[in-house]
Write a structure and sequence with these properties.
0% strand, mainly alpha, single chain, 76 residues
């Protein structure tokens, strides 16, 4: 699986989980969705993606040519 696809799956899952928790548990879980969104935006401008680093350590995206995870600083 490409790293970009894994990050999209992770971000989408976290947003949906946040919405479900906000609906069934407490509305403050919406802060998780906000955090995910802000993190996606900052990774575009800085090239630093914490999710990319975590997924790479778990072995996602190994052996995929040209898979730089969206930024020059990622994985260094």
């Amino acid at each position: 699986m490409k790293m970009e696809n894994a990050i999209r799956i992770l971000a989408g899952t976290m947003v949906l989980l946040s919405l479900a928790l906000a609906h069934f548990v407490d509305r403050h879980w919406l802060w998780l969705a906000a955090f995910v969104g802000v993190n996606l935006i900052q990774s575009v401008f800085t090239g630093f993606c914490p999710a990319c680093n975590i997924l790479r350590r778990l072995g996602v995206g190994r052996g995929q040519p040209g898979d730089d995870c969206g930024g020059p600083k990622c994985g260094q």
